[in-house]
Amino acid sequence: xxxxxxxxxxxxxxxxxxxxxxxxxxxxxxxxxxxxxxxxxxxxxxxxxxxxxxxxxxxxxxxxxxxxxxxxxxxxxxxxxxxxxxxxxxxxxxxxxxxxxxxxxxxxxxxxxxxxxxxxxxxxxxxxxxxxxxxxxxxxxxxxxxxxxxxxxxxxxxxxxxxxxxxxxxxxxxxxxxxxxxxxxxxxxxxxxxxxxxxxxxxxxxxxxxxxxxxxxxxxxxxxxxxxxxxxxxxxxxxxxxxxxxxxxxxxxxxxxxxxxxxxxxxxxxxxxxxxxxxxxxxxxxxxxxxxxxxxxxxxxxxxxxxxxxxxxxxxxxxxxxxxxxxxxxxxxxxxxxxxxxxxxxxxxxxxxxxxxxxxxxxxxxxxxxxxxxxxxxxxxxxxxxxxxxxx
Amino acid sequence: xxxxxxxxxxxxxxxxxxxxxxxxxxxxxxxxxxxxxxxxxxxxxxxxxxxxxxxxxxxxxxxxxxxxxxxxxxxxxxxxxxxxxxxxxxxxxxxxxxxxxxxxxxxxxxxxxxxxxxxxxxxxxxxxxxxxxxxxxxxxxxxxxxxxxxxxxxxxxxxxxxxxxxxxxxxxxxxxxxxxxxxxxxxxxxxxxxxxxxxxxxxxxxxxxxxxxxxxxxxxxxxxxxxxxxxxxxxxxxxxxxxxxxxxxxxxxxxxxxxxxxxxxxxxxxxxxxxxxxxxxxxxxxxxxxxxxxxxxxxxxxxxxxxxxxxxxxxxxxxxxxxxxxxxxxxxxxxxxxxxxxxxxxxxxxxxxxxxxxxxxxxxxxxxxxxxxxxxxxxxxxxxxxxxxxxx
Lengths: 392, 392
Description:
By secondary structure, chain A is an alpha/beta fold. The first copy, chain A, folds into two domains: 21-268, 3-Layer(aba) Sandwich (Aspartate Aminotransferase, domain 2); 271-391, Aspartate Aminotransferase, domain 1 (Alpha-Beta Complex). Helices cover 43% and strands 15% of the residues of chain A. Chain A has helices at 22-28, 38-55, 69-80, 94-105, 123-132, 154-163, 183-186, 212-219, 232-239, 253-269, 271-292, 318-329, 356-372, 382-391; strands at residues 11-13, 61-65, 86-91, 109-114, 138-142, 144-145, 150-151, 167-171, 190-192, 206-210, 307-311, 331-335, 344-348. Chain A is globular. The termini of chain A are far apart. The relative contact order of chain A is 0.16. The mean pLDDT of chain A is 96. At the A-B interface, helix 1, helix 2, helix 3, helix 4 and helix 10 of A face helix 1, helix 2, helix 3, helix 4 and helix 10 of B.
C-alpha cells in the first residue's frame, strides 16, 4: 500500500536538480506564513536584493517567478513579444528549440540562427541575421547550454542586440551562480534562470530580471500579455515597489524561504569565490576523466565548469553505466540530449554539489563501473589526477 | 544585515495558505532526487492515484501542475479554449473575473453570468445564457468562492453544460478535501485546485484533472496551445502513461514529496471523515461567532464550512482588528475582497487548520480584540458556545 515516501540519498551530478544544501532544506521546512504577512513582505524585499546581487543588476523588476525555469522563459517571451514581431533565436542545443516554440506561440516569427550542438552561438551568424532582418525586435539565446555544456559569449551577443535596436532575452538557467553573469554591464534586457542548478536550491522557481528598456516595452504593449499568470504588469503589483502589495497569486511561501537561504549562502561566499570554486572543481574533474582516458565533448575554451560533457567511449552501454551508477553508487549523472543522446554524459558540478568529495566520488565510481563493464580505460589514475589539481 | 529567515509561528485561519501539517513539512525537507529518477517516477504514479481518489475520478489525465492555482486555472483555459470560442463564465466573486481574463487572453468571447457577491451561481441565469448563446463551447464556474465563502451547485452546473453540449471548467481551489467533490459523478470536464487550502500542503502546486471528453478536445485542437509550459499534450508526455517519461520541465521534486504526504493523510482520514470534520468545526465556529453577537455574511444553506465570511460589526476598524490578531495572537484571518472589502472577515478552517484548538483560539482572540477596541459584543459566551457544539 501507499505509505510515506522516503527518497534514497542520491548524489546529484546530472544537469540539475543538483544536491540541495542542508541549510536550504532546513529553511524550506520552516512553518508556513501568509503571502501577505508583513514579515513575508520583508522577506520578499530581501529576496529581491539578493537576486539583484546574484544577477549583478539594479533592475527594479527582479523577482522569482512562482514556477520552474520553463515558465520563467515563457514569462520573458509573452511579455516582450507581440503578434507579428520578428525574433532572432539562436539554437545550439535543446533550449533554443524551446525558445522558437515560445516565439511562435506568441504569434511572432522566429528567425533561427543554428550552430552545431557542442558549439557556441556564432556572433557572425547573428550579425548577418540582423542585417537580413533589420526589423527584428528581439534576440534570444542561451548563455550556458544545459544540453551540451557550452558557454556562449553573452556580453557580445547582448551588445549585438543593442547595436541593432533590439532587446535581448538571455537564458541563464545553468549559469546563475556558476559563472560570470553581469546583467547590467552586458546590457541584457530580459534574463531568466532556475533555482535547481548553481543556486543549490530546490527546483520550482525561476528568478527573472527585466531592464528598464524591457519594462518600457512591456508598459507600451497594445496587446494584453496572453498569459494572466505570467503578466509582469500584474506580477509587479505584488512584487514591485514599496507601496501596498496587491494580491496576484498565492506565492509559494516555503519555496521562497529556501531561495532566500540559498541566495544568502551565495552572497556569504561571494560571486567570485563561487565562480572560482566551480572552475577549480571542474579542472580536477577534467584531469581525472582525461587520466582515465575519456575525452571531453566540448573544446576547452567553451566549456561550462558546472556542466561537463564527456564523450562515451566506443562500445560502452550508455544506459547500463548510468543505471549502475544510480543503483550501486546512488550517483546521478545526466544522459546526452537530442543530437548528443547516447554520445555524451553530462556531469554536473553545480552549486553545493560542486565540491571535492563529489569530484573524487564520481571519478572513483565511474572508473569502477566502466571497468566492470569491460571498457578500455586507464585504471587507477583518475582519482589521483584530480587530487593533484586540488593540492596544487 | 540580511540573515537566515525564521518565520513567526502563525496560526493560519485566512483564505489560505492554511496551517501546514508537520508531517507535510517533514516530507518537504527530505533530500532532493532527480525528476527522472526511477524512484521519483514511482512517486509520481502514487501522486496520480491519490489525486484520483481526492477528486473522485478515474480520469487518466490527473496531475499537479508545477505552479500555483492560478496557473492551474490557466492550464484549463488555454488547453480547452480556441480563438473565436464562446465561453459562459459565472461570476459571483473575485475568481469569475479572473476566468474572464483567461478567456479573453485566449482570443475568445466571455459571456458573463453575474450574481451578487455572497450568493451562489444562479442555475436559471446559466440556463438562459445557454439558450441565448447555443454555440457556447464551455461553461466555467467556481465551486467554492474563496472571496465570499459561498458554495455553488456544481453537480447541477456541470449537468447544464453537458445538456447543452458544452464542457465544464470547475474551480475547486477551496473545495478539494473540504467538501464533497465528485468529478466523475458530476461529469466535470476540467477541474483545477490548489494545495494550500484543504489539503494542508504548502502553496505552489495546482492539482488538475481532465475528463476523456476534455482530452479529446485537446487532441483535436487545430491551434497550438498558446502556453508551452501549460500545454497538456506536452505535459502528458512526462506525467502520462506507463511508458517512457519524456522530459518536459524539471518537476518541483520537494513540493511533490509534500503533496504526496498531504494526499496520503487525506486518504488515511478518508474523504467523508474529512468533510465531516470541516462541517463540525464550522458549526462550532459559527455558534461561537453568533454567541458573540456577530452575523455570518452568507445564508446558511450556501456556506462553505472551510471559509467563513463574517460581517464586520458597525464602527469596528477592520484593519486594526486584523493587525492586533496578527501581532498579539500570531493569528491570521482574511480581509474581505472586492465588493466585500471592509465589510467582511474571512475565517478559514481548512485542512489541518480545521481543528478544535483553532476554533477556540480564534474565538477567544477575536473576542478579546473586539472588546479592547470597544466593540459592542456579548462577551464571555463565544468559547463556551463552541465547546457545546464539540461536546454534543
